[in-house]
Amino acid sequence: MFKIIVSLVLASMLSACAGVDFGSPNTYQRGDVRHAGTMEEATVVRTRVITIEAGSDNSGLTSLISAGVGAFLGSRTIGNGTGRYIAGALTGAASGIVSQKVSQVLSHHAGLEIIVRTNAGRTLVVTQPDDQQFAPGDHVLLVSSNSGLRVTH
């Protein structure tokens, strides 16, 4: 029982490493704090739902570590003699595949493409996470900082 609990804890820790920060308009990066930015008023012209894909770790390090841990735990908890080596190989391969799929799923996040027209007449397109909703005709603020441009109410 103890080995199963340890296995679950390790698996959850490895999958947590795949979490990604997508730059919410409600969250400021450390480099933006105590720095002046600019603000401009605008009107929403159109919005469209998009999917934001984070850059992935193409080295495969997460899958490799997960496969190694899975193989080790599988060989220690399943089978005896030569059966434990087969169990280790199977659990290692399975955990590597699972961690790769979890990483792919967690690297996608819902977002919005927001087209705005500034009071100066410029038309801009801003993409950001969908944690604020906008509709055509909404009066919004364009906030510019070191991290980029955000649309907010």
Structure in words:
By secondary structure, the protein is an alpha+beta fold. It folds into two domains: 81 residues, OB fold (Dihydrolipoamide Acetyltransferase, E2P), CATH 2.40.50; 51 residues, no CATH class. Helices cover 37% and strands 30% of the residues. Strands 3-2-1-4-5 form a five-stranded antiparallel beta sheet. β2 and β3 form a beta hairpin. α1 runs antiparallel to α2 and α2 packs antiparallel against α3. The longest helix has 25 residues. It is elongated. It starts with a helix and ends with a strand.
What is the number of independent domains?
2
* Structural class determined from secondary elements: alpha+beta
Given the C-alpha coordinates, what overall shape results?
elongated
Distance separating the two termini: 51 Å
Find the count of extended strands (DSSP E, 2+ residues): 5
Which segments are poorly predicted (pLDDT under 50) over 5 or more consecutive residues? none
Named CATH topology of the largest domain: OB fold (Dihydrolipoamide Acetyltransferase, E2P)
Question: How many helical stretches?
Answer: 3
Chain-wise SSE layout:
Blueprint: H1 2-16, E1 38-53, H2 61-77, H3 82-106, E2 108-118, E3 123-129, E4 139-145, E5 148-152
Antiparallel strand pairs: 1-2, 1-4, 2-3, 4-5
Can you give me a brief rundown of this structure?
37% of the residues lie in helices and 30% in strands. The chain is α+β, with helices and mostly antiparallel strands and 153 residues long. A five-stranded antiparallel beta sheet has the order 3-2-1-4-5.
